[in-house]
Design goal:
- The chain is α/β, with parallel strands linked by helices.
- The chain has one domain: Ribonuclease H-like superfamily/Ribonuclease H (Nucleotidyltransferase, domain 5, 2-Layer Sandwich), CATH 3.30.420.10.
- It is built from 11 helices and 5 strands.
- Helix 2 packs parallel to helix 5 and helix 7 runs parallel beside helix 9.
Amino acid sequence: MTLFSRLFGPSPPLALPAAGQLQRWLSLPRADLHTPFETSRYVVVDVETSGLDPTRDRLIAIGAVTVADGQINLDDAFEIVLQQPAPSTHDNILVHGIGGIAQYAGSDPVDALLQFLNFAGKAPLVAFHATFDETALRLAIRKHLGADFRQPWLDLAYLAPALHPGLKQHNRSLDDWLSHFGIGNFARHSALADAYSTAQLFLVLMKSPKQNSTARNFADLIKQEKTQRSLLRLKQQDL
């Protein structure tokens, strides 16, 4: 028995239109991670959930912004609220601002997740603390669509200190890095607003002198992220 089936039980069968949409997404070719930045499409993602544990809490909202050909494409953005069986707690609503009425009135989760897959395609995905977003999306897609969502992800929480090692002691959270580079956020903890600010941070990092000299594509960035993770693990072992 897999983790997914233990958490949620077997996935319900999809209706034919939804199954056809899912099959079209599954049939898309994987992205070439060695394509140069200047000619690539990336999707920067942020999610809001009913709590801080993505393995147990419900996915409430998804926001995503496209970075294509080296710039943010505001005409190619995505935001959706998933319909909830019950609203999240009052304290949780104070964080993301999606009230009980909006949660009840959200889109059917199957339709919402299919819309997200159609928007993202098989593009590489970018987030800050990406494990949270990846886990929340992967479990929701497995629960509602019965599909295994495993895309290439880049985590800016590791890439930023890898490219700016002199700044890492004073910049750890997303808010820290946004403040350092003078990046605003029009509605912090809104999925779309956070995705847009993260996309701006991504572009700033792409212009880093260290990045320009060592990385030319998404595969190179993943190597830099993994190196930073390894250095952090070694440091923690020495403590």
